[in-house]
């Protein structure tokens, strides 16, 4: 249930409303924005008489909400959330580009790519140490060694690290990681979501499952937030459809749709969405124009020899060009009114 307060609501009466709600085991979350003050009510409001609240002089309107997600819901939190990724802010008008290889392969590869993407304007780096591969015979990632290499690249460049967590027992290894990525295949690994919610407040980049609806994506974000970690970013990486011309199908409408439903930042992954390096730039440009809060792009110094996802990896030169075009679009990007 959402209670919208009148603009000039008397503080004493608001306090007594909050006390009245608490006495009924309802947890009120007050959110004061520029335009309005709203109280999001968490608890069993089903049996409550809305008319009693509506009748109060401080109340503008009362609404029962249908959506099952509360913490991630824009209605409870009208202002955009800003997630601070070790100094790199994402959301609320702040835009960042995360770039790097699909997988960490060696010190030379990771440090070299990190330096080149930084020179082109990337502000965070990506690289998988633990890789979710469709085939058990494919390269599975360097594991713990991969994380050490990412730290080496961070020492060399200062770029914060974004890398995927696949198993709860690996979480202690992620102490120096800046952003935990939850991959598409684990979007509904609820135990993992609860663990990243309760064990740390580190930013989480939550990727949409390949057959997940947006409501399911938001419910997964809700798992993390309800467990205690509000620092969630939603990542669209394309979904599985009947189309075979691209690796996945991306519908950039998700950006304004998610922004209406939720206050969480939206990051777009044009690499996994399309599967081809030549399609990364147009989708990255489109996503920027449509108001994405960030992009995550795969870049490899030698795509034909990449151990994972070489076909969709931009070369550092392609990435540099894309970054220039994105910078030109940014001042004109759509923003929710
Ligand atoms: C990745 O980012 O390398 C990855 C495996 O992505 P996804 O989970 O979106 O497939
Ligand atoms: Mn990849």
Give a description of the structure.
The structure is a single chain. The protein is α/β, with parallel strands linked by helices and 337 residues long. It folds into 2 domains: 2-63, Alpha-Beta Plaits; 83-332, Aldolase class I (TIM Barrel, Alpha-Beta Barrel). It has helices at residues 11-23, 50-54, 107-119, 144-157, 190-198, 214-226, 254-261, 270-274, 277-289, 316-329; strands spanning 2-5, 27-32, 37-42, 59-63, 83-85, 88-90, 96-100, 124-126, 161-164, 179-182, 204-207, 232-236, 266-268, 294-298. The chain has an 8-stranded parallel beta barrel with strand order 7-8-9-10-11-12-13-14, surrounded by 5 helices. Helix 3 links the parallel strand 7 and strand 8 (124-126). The relative contact order is 0.13. Residues 102, 272, 298, 308-309 line the site of manganese (II) ion. Phosphoenolpyruvate binds next to loops.
User: What count of domains describes the coordinates?
Assistant: 2
Mean pLDDT: 95
User: Helix and strand string, N-terminal first?
Assistant: EHEEHEEEEHEHEEHEHEHEHHEH
For the largest sheet, list the strands in their spatial order: 7-8-9-10-11-12-13-14
CATH architecture of the largest domain: Alpha-Beta Barrel
Please give the alpha-carbon distance between the first and last residues: 24 Å
Cα gyration radius (Å): 21 Å
Structural class: alpha/beta
* The CATH C-level class name of the largest domain: Alpha Beta
Ligands and ions found: phosphoenolpyruvate, manganese (II) ion
> CATH homologous superfamily of the largest domain, by name?
Aldolase class I
Largest sheet descriptor: 8 strands, parallel, barrel
């Amino acid at each position: 249930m959402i209670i919208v307060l009148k603009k000039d609501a008397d503080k004493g009466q608001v306090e007594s409303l909050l006390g009245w709600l608490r006495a009924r085991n309802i947890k009120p979350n007050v959110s004061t924005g520029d335009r309005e003050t709203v109280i999001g009510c968490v608890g069993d409001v089903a049996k409550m008489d809305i008319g009693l609240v509506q009748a109060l002089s401080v109340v503008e309107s009362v609404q029962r909400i249908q959506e099952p997600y509360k913490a991630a819901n824009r209605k409870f939190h009208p202002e955009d959330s800003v997630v601070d990724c070790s100094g790199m802010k994402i959301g609320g008008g702040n835009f960042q580009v995360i770039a790097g290889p699909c997988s960490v392969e060696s010190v030379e590869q990771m440090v070299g790519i990190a330096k080149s993407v930084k020179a082109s304007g990337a502000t965070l780096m990506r690289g998988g140490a633990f890789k979710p591969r469709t085939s058990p015979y494919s390269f599975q990632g360097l594991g713990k060694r991969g994380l050490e290499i990412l730290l080496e690249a961070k020492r060399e460049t200062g770029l914060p690290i974004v890398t995927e967590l696949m198993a709860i027992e690996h979480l202690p290894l992620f102490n120096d990681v800046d952003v935990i990525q939850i991959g598409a295949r684990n979007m509904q690994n609820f135990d993992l979501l609860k663990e990243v919610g309760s064990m740390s407040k580190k930013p989480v980049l939550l990727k949409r499952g390949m057959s997940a609806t947006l409501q399911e994506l938001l419910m997964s974000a809700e798992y993390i937030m309800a467990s205690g970690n509000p620092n969630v970013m939603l990542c669209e990486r394309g979904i599985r459809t009947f189309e075979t011309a691209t690796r996945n199908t991306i519908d950039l409408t998700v950006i304004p749709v998610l922004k209406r439903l939720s206050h969480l930042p939206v990051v777009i992954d044009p690499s996994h969405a399309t599967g081809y390096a030549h399609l990364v730039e147009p989708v990255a440009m489109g996503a920027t124009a449509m108001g994405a809060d960030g992009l995550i792009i795969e870049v490899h110094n030698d795509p034909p020899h990449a151990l994972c996802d070489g076909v969709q990896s931009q070369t550092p030169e392609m990435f540099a060009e894309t970054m220039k075009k994105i910078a030109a679009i940014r001042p004109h990007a759509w923003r929710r009114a």
